[in-house]
Amino acid sequence: MKSKRGAVELSITTIIVVVIGITLLVLGLAWVQGIFSQLDKLTGEQFTSAQKKIQESMGADARFYVSGNAFNVKSGEKVEVYVGVQNFGTQGTNDFLIEVQPGKNAEGKFVITTSEERVQVKVGDRAGIPVIIRANKGLNTGTDYSFIIKAIRDGNKEIPYDSQAILVTVI
User: Fold this and answer.
1) How confident is residue 151, by pLDDT bands cut at 50, 70 and 90?
2) What's the pTM value of the predicted model, to 2 decimals?
3) DSSP characters for the chain?
4) pLDDT digit string (tens) for 69-101?
């Protein structure tokens, strides 16, 4: 009789462990879903903010605009850079992609987030695109890092639409 009793206890323990595991899995999935929904909301707000900043600051004859050429960031924190593109094409709509190229001394020390989606801009219109540059923790204060921000039109990486160099200083 003792072996049957042990088997029943073992199967009850297994059922309890499986139920707890499934519960933790469901709670973990709900948490991850919540994080991604907040990320989508944040991204939308950043695009709106970038669009507003570009409309206010970009000159009528400017093809490309970056919201500054020097930025300060604390180690482990981020800085938002607003990039604007005005389409001076001849007809229709063009796809634009923003690419950020770190300088030699900046490689691996920053996490750069841009929209990986191409932004469609009609001829004569402008589009604002946020770029987030996050400094890794542990960077020395007072150090300058260079980046080149490029606008790529219709996937032509050989001849960028326009570009601008920026300097990021860790404070």
Assistant:
1) very high
2) 0.67
3) -HHHHHHHHHHHHHHHHHHHHHHHHHHHHHHHHHHHHHHHHHHHHHHHHHHHHHHHHS-TT-SEEES-SEEEE-TT-EEEEEEEEE---SSSEEEEEEEEEE-GGGTTTEEEE---SPEEEETT-EEEEEEEEEEPTTPPTT-EEEEEEEEEETT--SS-SEEEEEEEEE-
4) 899 999 999 998 989 899 998 889 999 999 999
Rounded Cα distance between 112 and 146, Å, is 13
| Mean pLDDT to the nearest integer, 6-28 | 84
141 to each of 49, 54, 102, 170, how far by Cα in Å? 29, 30, 18, 5
